[in-house]
From TrEMBL:
Gene Ontology molecular function terms on file: transaminase activity
Protein name, as recorded: Aminotransferase
Cofactors named for this entry: pyridoxal 5'-phosphate
Database matches in InterPro entries: Aminotransferase_I/II_large, AspAT/PAT-like, NHTrfase_class1_PyrdxlP-BS, PyrdxlP-dep_Trfase, PyrdxlP-dep_Trfase_major, PyrdxlP-dep_Trfase_small
Keyword match DNA-binding: no
Organism (species): Ollibium composti
Keyword match Transferase: yes
TM spans (from-to): none
Keyword terms of this UniProt record: Aminotransferase, Pyridoxal phosphate, Transferase
C-alpha cells in the first residue's frame, strides 16, 4: 500500500502500554479461570432501563435523520443545564457542542487550541488517550508529575516551570483517572493563576464529576477562568452510557462556534435517536444518583477492607471509578506485582507505572465490580501481601 501519513502513524507509537496484564487476564477468564477483572473502567451494569425505553421510543417515533451539527437544540439546552451544575457557572446552549463521547470532546478541544508544533502541559497520572490526542494535533507536550505522598494533587509551581514560549494549554482531569484524586480548590486556584498570567487555556476533563467524594470544583468557576477553560463532559460514567457515545464540550461561545466545523468534517452530527434518548436521560437524571451511590458504596467497602493491611497504603481514591494502592513496600516493581498477583490470586489490576512515574509502585483498582466481588478481591490481596516473597 502507499505510505500512510506520519500524523496517523504517530498517534500511538508501537511498544508496551501496560495493558498486557489486562489482556492476559481476559484470555484466562475466557478460558474458564475464576479471574476477578479489576483492570477496566467500564460499568458492570447496563444503561438504566428508562433511558433504553426512551431510545426505543425515539427509534419507533421516526428519529432517523441527520441532526444539527452542534446538536439538537433541546440536547444542547439539557447539556448546558448540566454544565451549569457541574461547573457552577451559568451556561447557555451556545456554549456547548455535542460530541460522540468525552473523548471526542477532548479531541475537539485539543484541535481547537493547538497548532502544529505548539506545546501543552499534561498533569500526570493521566488517562491513557491524552498523549495520542496531542500527537493527532501534531502538538508537543510535557508531562508534569504529581506526588503520591501529596495525594496526587497538581503543584502549580512545578507546572509553571514547564511553561514555554509556545505553551498554549494545560490539561487536567478531576476526579482523576487513574488515581481517584479529586483536585482541591486551592490546587486549582494555583493552576488558574498560572493560566491567567501566561494566557493559557485550561482543558478540564470532568467526566467523573458525579462520582466524586466531597466537593467537585470546576476551574471554570474561578475568577477570570470561564473565558479560558474548556470542560470535557460525558454521559458515559454519570448516566451509565459508555457505549452510547455521548459527550460535550463547554467553553466560550465564540470558540464553540468554531468547533462546529470539526463536527462538519468528522461526525456530521450525532445519531438522531440517541440524541433524543439523551435529552430524556439528562432532563430526568436517569441513573445518576443510583450510579453515584453505587460507586461510593463500592469505594467504602473496598477501601475499608484494604485499610489496615500491612504494607498497603491508599493514595488519592476519593472519587471516580478507581482506587490507587501503594504496594511498593511489598514489591517496588508494580508490573511484577500485577503479574504475580494475577498468577497467584487470579485478580487483574493495572500496574501504576503505565500511567506515569508518579504512580510507579502502585496498582490501580477499578471499582467496576459489585461489593461482594470487591470484598473477595481485597481478601485475596491480603493473602497475597502476607505470603509474597
Ligand atoms: N476522560 C477520562 C478521564 C476517562 O477516563 C474517559 C474514559 O474512560 C474519557 C475521558 C472518555 O470517555 P467517553 O469517551 O466514554 O465519554
Amino acid at each position: 500500500m502507499p505510505k500512510p501519513s506520519s500524523r496517523i502513524s504517530n498517534i500511538i507509537p508501537s511498544g508496551k502500554d501496560g495493558w498486557e496484564v489486562h489482556f492476559a487476564a481476559w484470555q484466562r477468564k475466557e478460558a474458564g479461570e475464576p479471574v476477578i477483572m479489576l483492570s477496566v473502567g467500564d460499568h458492570d451494569f447496563d444503561t438504566p432501563v428508562e433511558t433504553v425505553e426512551a431510545c426505543v421510543a425515539a427509534v419507533r417515533g421516526g428519529h432517523h435523520h441527520y441532526t444539527p451539527l452542534p446538536g439538537i437544540p433541546a440536547l444542547r439546552d439539557a447539556m448546558a443545564r448540566i454544565s451549569t451544575q457541574c461547573t457552577g457557572v451559568e451556561t447557555t446552549a451556545d456554549e456547548v457542542i455535542v460530541t460522540p463521547g468525552g473523548q471526542a470532546a477532548l479531541y475537539a478541544a485539543v484541535q481547537g487550541v493547538l497548532d502544529r508544533g505548539d506545546h501543552a502541559i499534561v498533569v500526570a497520572p493521566y488517562y491513557a488517550t491524552y498523549p495520542g490526542t496531542f500527537r493527532a494535533a501534531e502538538a508537543d507536550f510535557t508531562v508534569v508529575e504529581t506526588r503520591a505522598a501529596n495525594g496526587f494533587q497538581p503543584d502549580a509551581a512545578a507546572i509553571e516551570k514547564a511553561v514555554r514560549k509556545n505553551t498554549r494549554a494545560i490539561l487536567i482531569n478531576t476526579p482523576n483517572n487513574p488515581t481517584g484524586a479529586v483536585y482541591t480548590r486551592a490546587a486549582l486556584e494555583g493552576l488558574a493563576d498560572v493560566c491567567r498570567r501566561h494566557d493559557l487555556w485550561l482543558l478540564s476533563d470532568e467526566v467523573y464529576w458525579t462520582l466524586g467524594g466531597g466537593e467537585h470544583v470546576s476551574p471554570r468557576a474561578l475568577p477570570g477562568m470561564a473565558e479560558r477553560t474548556l470542560v470535557i463532559n460525558s454521559m458515559s460514567k454519570s448516566h451509565g452510557m459508555t457505549g452510547w457515545r455521548l459527550g460535550w464540550l463547554t467553553g466560550p461561545a465564540d470558540f464553540i462556534a468554531l468547533t462546529v466545523n470539526l463536527n462538519l468534517v468528522t461526525t456530521y452530527g450525532l445519531t438522531d435517536f440517541v440524541s433524543h434518548a439523551a435529552i430524556e436521560a439528562l432532563n430526568n437524571g436517569y441513573g445518576v444518583r443510583e450510579i453515584a451511590e453505587r460507586y461510593a458504596g463500592r469505594r467504602t467497602v473496598f477501601l475499608d477492607a484494604v485499610r489496615g493491611m500491612n504494607d498497603v497504603t491508599v493514595r488519592g481514591s476519593e472519587g471516580g471509578m478507581y482506587a490507587m494502592l501503594d504496594i511498593s513496600a511489598i514489591e517496588p516493581d508494580d508490573e511484577k506485582f500485577a503479574w504475580a498477583f494475577l498468577d497467584a490470586e487470579k485478580v487483574a489490576v493495572m500496574p501504576g507505572s503505565s500511567f506515569g512515574e508518579a504512580a510507579a509502585g502502585h496498582i490501580r483498582i477499578s471499582l467496576c465490580q459489585p461489593e461482594d466481588v470487591l470484598r473477595e478481591a481485597a481478601q485475596r490481596l491480603r493473602r497475597f501481601a502476607s505470603s509474597y516473597r
